[in-house]
Design brief:
Rossmann fold; two-stranded antiparallel sheet; globular
């Protein structure tokens, strides 16, 4: 994706979520930019009370009308890497979405699938989420998959926490945890992922997306090292090696993605009003598998910084 033209969302992604928000939650009580700024503050600076920041009428308007279309493309990078290696199913995708929320990550997977030369014929999603209202909004969006330009989607929802996902039958081609694993106590994360590994179909992948915040991402680096040491899962991406993460050698470093992306113009205006960036996506991720498939060959390096101009030189950090 890095060298390609930045992907752009069609304006239908501004219109349809807005219609769902108003139909299910009524009209917003403040300008959308103001609501988005409030929710963003809760996500980034007041993380001790994420539930409060993400529930209620106004928060739902902000999440549906801005954060969902902004964040859905984050899963496209790990899916693109799997696709390039021939590791995505051809005709039917069986997906488990844990902590699904409004369905952002599953809808993002469907959006990516719609852009393939040969999209899958069907995407079957099992979604687990503790917020029934959010699941209801996901159902409303999935029902309009054709209008959103997505492949045919079937959706089965279950109200519950992340641990309920381990009880789902499977097998799944994709298991998705979008910006949610960090809400679980760290001591419980490895066990959850190892339990989910048993639900993967042969050749299936587990994708973890996390916010590009330093402490959250460094916890993901630590979890990666623990998973590799335990041996139940291998890391397909982003890491080009299975050695301990070098970012953990100091307390200030963390590895995250910063990729170009274009929002529809109406949503770019909302981002400006909220004081947020709208031309790039930042996030951290792990793509995990039960086999030894790896995105990079043993002699490859991955760029882990933006270009750095220093004293007439252009420098890059490599891993």
């Amino acid at each position: 994706m890095g060298a390609e033209r930045p992907p752009t969302l069609d304006e239908v992604w501004a219109r349809v979520p807005a219609e769902v928000a108003e139909a299910r939650f009524g009209r917003a009580r403040a300008p959308l930019g103001q609501l988005v700024a409030q929710v963003s503050e809760g996500y980034t600076r007041e993380r001790g009370d994420l539930r409060r920041a993400s529930t209620g009428r106004d928060a739902m308007h902000a999440r549906l009308r801005f954060f969902l279309p902004r964040d859905l493309a984050k899963v496209a990078l790990p899916l693109h890497e799997l696709d390039a290696a021939g590791l995505l199913p051809a005709r039917r995708w069986r997906v488990l979405d844990l902590g699904a929320g409004l369905g952002t990550t599953s809808l993002g997977a469907a959006w990516y699938a719609s852009r393939r030369e040969t999209p899958p014929e069907q995407i079957a999603v099992d979604a687990v989420e503790r917020d029934a209202a959010a699941l209801g909004a996901f159902e409303a969006l999935a029902a309009r998959h054709g209008e959103l330009g997505l492949p045919a989607m079937t959706l089965r929802t279950r109200v519950g926490d992340l641990k309920k996902g381990v009880r789902e039958r499977g097998p799944y081609d994709l298991i998705l945890l979008g910006l949610v694993l960090n809400e679980l106590p760290f001591a419980e994360r490895r066990g959850l992922l190892e339990g989910l590994a048993a639900k993967l179909a042969p050749g299936g992948s587990l994708i973890v997306l996390e916010p590009a915040l330093r402490e959250v991402t460094r916890e993901l680096h630590r979890l990666r090292d623990e998973l590799l040491e335990a041996g139940a899962l291998s890391v397909f991406a982003p890491c080009p090696h299975a050695a301990p993460c070098p970012m953990r050698a100091t307390k200030k470093d963390w590895c995250h993605e910063d990729v170009p992306f274009r929002l529809p113009d109406p949503l770019a205006e909302v981002a400006r009003a909220a004081g947020l960036r709208f031309e790039r996506l930042t996030f951290a991720y792990l793509t995990l598998r039960r086999d030894d498939a790896r995105r990079a060959a043993g002699d490859e390096w991955r760029v882990v910084s933006q270009p750095l101009k220093t004293k007439g030189k252009l420098e890059l950090w490599l891993c």
